[in-house]
Amino acid sequence: MDEKEFRRTLELFPVVRSRDYCAEPGTSSRGTKQPLRVQDATKSNKKDSSSAEDLFMQKLKMAAEKKIGATKAEFFCKAFEEAHEKLVYKELNLDAAKKFLSAYETDAAQRFAGAGDPM
Where are the domains of the chain? Predict the structure, then answer.
């Protein structure tokens, strides 16, 4: 899936947070003076975060399937998940993210062409 197609597909979904969204201070467990409570909260937040991400990806895939079909939705969700993981967990800057999308474009286009699903 090339960058243009990825962006077109992404634009099918409504924006739920502004580009400059920032979590409220105090919603994070950082800065708490009680280390054990922070550790417990962190473990709980990781579990909640993981299940929330899984739920989000399931909802994204279902919505994408309705909008663009199952095959294209699979490629879109895979590209979205990879970009999300690299941006969030590996903290890529914007230039690195663009390079990632460009590199992914060639690989995804080849896989997509092999799927036999016309655009």
Answer: 34-115
Tokens (6 digits) for 116: 């036999």
Q: Hey, what amino acid is at 82?
A: E
45 close to 82: Cβ distance less than 8 angstroms? no
Q: d(Cα 79, Cα 106) in Å, to the nearest integer?
A: 12
Residues 79, 68: Cα–Cα separation, whole Å? 15
Q: What is the mean pLDDT of residues 29-45?
A: 46
- What contacts 97, CB < 8 A, 6 or more positions away? 83, 86, 87
The Cα–Cα gap between 26 and 112 comes to 44
Say which residue, 62 or 103, is predicted with more confidence.
Answer: 62
Residue 27 in tokens: 């919603």
Rg (CA), the chain: 18
What integer pLDDT is reported at residue 4 of this predicted model?
Answer: 84
